[in-house]
Amino acid sequence: MNHNEQVWLLLDSRSYGGIETHVLQLAKSLIKHHIKVEVIFIAGYGTHPMCEIFQREHINYRVLSHGLYSLLSIMYQERPRIVHTHGYKAGIYARLARLLTQTTIVSTFHAGEIVSGKLGFYDAIDRISACLSHALIAVSAPINARIKNQATIVNNFVAIERQGFPGNNIAFVGRLSHEKGPDTFIKLAPFFPHQVFHIYGDGPMLEELKDIASDNVRFHGHQDSMDSHWHKIGLLIMPSRQEGLPMAALEAMAHGIPVCAYNVGALSKLIDRSNGWLIRLGDFKSLRFGIRQWLSSSIKLNFNRSRLARKSVIKGFSDVAAMPMIINCYNKAMVNNHCAHQQIQPKLVEHSHDAH
What we know:
Elements: E1 7-11, H1 18-32, E2 37-41, H2 49-56, E3 60-63, H3 67-78, E4 82-86, H4 88-101, E5 104-109, H5 117-128, E6 135-138, H6 141-146, E7 152-153, E8 169-173, H7 182-188, E9 197-200, H8 206-212, E10 217-219, E11 233-238, H9 247-254, E12 259-262, E13 277-279, H10 284-296, H11 299-316, H12 319-336
Parallel strand pairs: 1-2, 1-4, 2-3, 4-5, 5-6, 6-7, 8-9, 8-11, 9-10, 11-12, 12-13
Helix pairs in contact: 3-4, 4-5
């Protein structure tokens, strides 16, 4: 059986969110390692916001028109080296197609929450059929536990690129929903009347937040990508009531932007006193103190904080750390599918990771 050299990243997607961000970072990182990659959407739901980003980043993609039938057809005809699935439906479809095409399947599990209804059905089938993949990846230990600890844990990560100095804006980036705490961010603004507080995101609390916002709050709406905005931001505030390991924090710190956050989820793995502010949940006074400290710090101190923020991401949450593990999973999957002779040998690209 002749396989082409590509890795396919397969997903079912209607909008831009955490899984989509992960797929984008993975595609960029595979390209950096000179591994051919194509993103495959198993269905189209109108113009997808990622398409413009993929075009700008020169990432190949396509949208299938007939779901499982189309996937089965192209897998059989084109014989990709690996199909790497992301999300419930993509995993289920690829495993079904694999039974007829003998394609090597790797599946990443992103979601740890308990869901119900139609999503709950897909979630259950996804977990039950996980054994049909040749290798499994989970983005956290709790998610791995839900699939009986069968997976290799690879943290969410971002592709590291050369960056300049951060900006001066104070910002919130994320969904405007209760668990993310945008109302807390809004309440901080009146304490700093000479600073502008910027909100990037949309969600169910938008109108409520506009009603209580002071004059120094600016709403920028939903962003398909923050790439054109990170350079304006100097401090990211993350007053989440619930959290995992948010991509916004990883992206910010990869750009040398320190984060002032409540200590929820896995943020303690990323933030410490040297590179930002990690604050007890609900301690509003300490959030204010973190902002004051950032505003009053010397250029030298903020420069060092920025450097250490970026260094923390590079060490444990970057493509530099994640890609060797992912490529190892690819090769393990091919061995499990009796394709050991086709193992991937990436060409490592040397990049400077000095933030400034």
